[in-house]
Amino acid sequence: MSDALMVQDLTVSLGGREILANVGFSLQGGALAALVGPNGSGKSTLLATLAGLHRPARGEVLIQGLSVFDQTQEARRRLGYMVAQDQLPGLLTPRQCLTLFAESRGLDRIPDDTWSQAEALRLDQWLDTWLSECSLGTRQKVSVLLALLGSPPLILLDEPLNGLDPISALALKKELTRLTSEEGCTVLMASHDLSSIEALNNHIVVLLDGRVVLDWDEDGMARAVGDGAGNGDANRTLESLVVAAMGRVD
Amino acid sequence: MNPVLRERQLIVGNLLSRSREQPLVTSLLGIFCLVLGLLIVIVLQQLGQQDHTALIASLQRWPFLIWPTIFLLCLAMQRPASHREWVTARTSWMAAWPEMPEAMRRWSRWRSFGWAMLQSMGLLVVLAWFNSVARGDDAFHGSHYLLAVLIPIVAWGILPWTVGRPTLSARPVKTPQAHASSHRNPSPEPVIAQWHRQQYRSQRWGAGTRWSLGLLLLLIPAGAAALQVAVALLIGLALVQWSQFWSAGLRVIVQGSALTRALPLSRRTFAARLSRLPMISVAVLLPAIALVSAAAGMAWAAALLTSLVVGSALTLYLAAVLAWRDEPSALKWQPLAVLLVFGLLSSSMPFLSPLVWLLLMAGLIRLIVKAPG
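Predict the joint structure of the above. Result:
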């Protein structure tokens, strides 16, 4: 069976500058992966490239075996991509956005799961308000819901917890866990919240200056932390290991 | 249905329902549009009364050259919008739609064609109307209508459509010069002047500029000598570039004011510094207008008067932009409204126009200095 996401030797240049260099990793179905890296390390560009929005100079991205660049529409139908909240159309309401997305995904109505998610994120009272009149957090929730709509096999989220209140953030984490464990979705989320990675994610990819410097699945994460404990380094947490990896100098 | 079209439909529906909820605002806006439309018709009527023999003769002489040129220029004017749509398809919320960016490309292509067609047809209708109301012009053949429709369709069909596909830059790429100056400002040129220059350079060859220059060709009289054509193009080029410099100055005023709103600097002094370059550009323009008008055969007194009228209007506009510089939404209408009042009062009572100018300017200066700081 093919991986949910396979990234091979991906090199992307924008404006004559190399943003990603030889990026490669893969995610199994059901993975809830964190994409970590300092500001400007190429996380958002990587997510946009995985969604087929940038054509790479070299490399390939396969979603369930389909090439994002050669079989774009088929691959993108298996993909939920979170857009930045400030890019949402101010003159539409969240309900209208969700309706348009549902139509775009070939659904005749907004799925029940989406309504449940909206309720869990406490978005239901804002569903008929223009997005220009919604708060940053509310728009962030809409962005997340649009990516989750229809439970696509691969979900790409760019810092989904930013701007969310603690209750909504917790509800979103629970929902992401449910989607991966029960529905078999694969989630790749860019995040700066290192403290919650160990509890939430079962795969971690660290990006530094456009290169993957660390790629651990669940076993790798457990091994790395366990080795530290075995060696008598009780302070060796996943967070400290990731920070150490991010602090590397080329 | 194309998802972009569907999105636009929903937005228009939302705006209509909001306008129904606010009948007073909608009525005022409607009245304003009506007045504006009437004014445009009056101006066109005035223009139509003038002699357009040369213009119509040019059109009749080179229809196969002029109509495709007009259409292509109109199409070129759509290019910035197509570029924005292409970027939108890749960076906005639409980027998440599976149909993107193909759906946006299809939408952009048809929209550009529709607008370019509408613009060239609009121009044709205006010219035909001029011809019908002008005295002593030759007949404006019905075949022009046919050409104006057929030529764009053929041109659009055979054009290899490559509009859009610009390279996206994820982050600004610094030039070596920018690297060197990122922590200090080694240039003796004041920052505002540098800003103004950069703004002007970024917009001086925009699609609008190219379109305006192309339309200048229409004004060349049939059978004109090469020297006349060259002079007309040179003057046109200078005028278009001047207007770009002027509008760059106005943009810097608005952006500079927004950027420095929270800074502890004297806002009045800052406003004066912001207005320096636009004022200099007005001062350069006025003698040029007087000279060109006199060279075109106008009496010196009339030429000076013309430059004075233009100067009055420009200074009023500049003052209005400064007065409402902290309210970008007001800038869409207020400066135009000031000019409208000045124009209407001055044309109905020409002898009182200096007084009208003084009163309006006094009011605007009061608003400028009222700004906090």
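Residues 160-188 of chain B have pLDDT under 50 and may be disordered.
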